[in-house]
Amino acid sequence: MIDSNIDLSKLRDVIDFEVDYIIKSYEKELSEKDDILAEKLAEKDDILAEKDKEIEILKAKLHETGMT
User: Fold this and answer.
1) Which of 41, 65, 44 is nearest to 57 (CA)?
2) Quick check: 68 and 59 in contact, CB under 8 A?
3) Which are the contacts of 59, defined by CB distance < 8 A and separation ≥ 6?
């Protein structure tokens, strides 16, 4: 009887370890994906800011020439 309790305890420990490992692996993977996504979004924001500047320059040129 004692041996089966010890075996069950060991089995629970192994299962807990495996579950923790899987959770940590997924958390790490999600974190890495979040970092990649944040980098891509930052790049897109930079591109949009650059395009906004170009638009403002073009608007100013149109205004200077009296076309607006």
Assistant:
1) 65
2) yes
3) 68
